[in-house]
Design goal:
mainly beta, 3 domains, four-stranded antiparallel β-sheet, 29 strands, 50% strand
């Protein structure tokens, strides 16, 4: 999907045995210009310069790639072959410096595809031996980056080996609504599709029969029947609509919205496989309420331990007091917030010496009206 004739309307590349292109408003008029020699094909459109517009088709084989370069000729509405060359198997395009890179071996490519970076920030996520910082008790197969809560700090979506999706903030703390209850398969994409400010999460079920769209807290918004081999390709704007692209279908949603860089639109982030995200906005949580969320997980508590989680924004002090049904204070804890913006506190509550029953947590944030959490303890 790219506006290759620079008329302000996204146009479409597609094909299976052959590559075609069509103007965005007329998908029925396809012009074929390249015969594929591989089943693994990427179409990249990295450059527009004074001499014209260029398209590169990269066909992958076990030990090499064939890079074929075409020039778009606007006056004839067709692509003209410029060059064909063989390259290394693992290649990617860096949109920042506008150059192609080829890695010499598989290990270098594997290191690249296990990393996420936020441009202009010191935020880096990296899978090392299938583990993430503070999560070495789990093994992950895939990671992608997105700002779920709009605090202008990159979060990570991590898919474990069983297909369960975890959402972690920049401090590697589990975010509200995660992990998801639905086993999924990679890739995991994210972008605002429904024009509700927050990005949606897009993925296929582990068995490939369903296409899921989740909101930023992991709740299902859409569940669409899908063919097993209909691979999830990307999330882009098509004909003025936010859209999901699969190998065989295009699903359109709300009118086009500007992502301001907050998107993971393809398997490796963008069409150039840079695995980098550039968030072009300030912390939008400043306009939200001070107390965002307060809950206990799991609930009820059956294993003599539970976690009370408090999410705040620009709060100065957070206090928690636990009472029994008779109103007697059982335990208390307080936090002084030294950082502004989005704040998350978790309190591990040990209940081995607590009788079974119902308990109430009084959550006090600054001088706001307290929030009450009800917790059941079962031994």
């Amino acid at each position: 999907i790219y506006d290759f004739n620079q008329d302000g309307i996204n146009d479409v590349f597609g094909g299976k045995d052959s590559i075609w292109f069509a103007f965005g408003e007329d998908l029925s008029s396809k012009i074929y210009f390249h015969q594929n020699t591989s089943n693994s094909v990427n179409i990249n459109v990295p450059t527009v310069d004074i001499d014209g517009f260029y398209c590169e088709i990269i066909e992958s084989f076990p030990d090499s790639t064939i890079h074929t370069k075409y020039e778009y000729m606007n006056e004839f509405n067709l692509f003209s072959l410029k060059s064909t060359r063989e390259g290394q198997r693992y290649s990617w395009y860096d949109p920042i410096i506008k150059k192609w890179f080829s890695f010499d071996n598989e290990s270098e490519w594997n290191e690249h595809k296990s990393t996420i970076r936020q441009i202009n920030e010191e935020i880096i996520y990296k899978l090392e031996n299938q583990t993430l910082t503070n999560w070495d008790h789990l093994s992950f197969q895939f990671i992608s980056g997105i700002d779920l809560n709009l605090d202008a700090s990159l979060d990570v979506l991590a898919l474990d080996l069983d297909g369960y999706l975890y959402g972690l903030n920049s401090d590697f703390i589990l975010m509200n609504g995660f992990p998801l209850d639905f086993p999924l398969q990679s890739p995991i994409l994210a972008r605002d599709l429904l024009d509700d400010v927050h990005p949606e999460i897009i993925a296929k079920s582990k068995d490939g029969t369903q296409l899921f769209i989740f909101n930023h807290e992991g709740k299902v918004q859409y569940q669409i029947a899908s063919k097993i081999n209909d691979k999830l390709i990307g999330a882009q704007v098509i004909d003025g609509k936010n859209a999901i692209i699969t190998q065989s279908n295009i699903y359109q949603f709300a009118d086009a919205t500007e992502s301001n860089g907050n998107e993971w639109a393809f398997e490796h982030g963008d069409w150039g496989r840079s695995r980098r995200v550039s968030l072009d906005y300030e912390n939008q949580m400043k306009s939200l309420q001070t107390l965002i969320n307060a809950y206990c997980y799991p609930n009820p508590l059956k294993n003599e331990t539970g976690t009370i989680r408090i999410e705040t924004n620009d709060a100065e002090k957070t206090e928690m007091r636990i009472y029994d049904v008779a109103g007697f204070l059982i335990e208390s804890k307080s936090f002084d917030n030294v950082q502004s913006g989005n704040q998350i506190h978790e309190w591990l509550w040990q209940t081995e010496n607590i009788e079974s029953g119902v308990y109430f947590v009084n959550v006090q944030v600054d001088d706001l009206v307290p929030k009450i959490i009800k917790i059941a303890v079962i031994h």
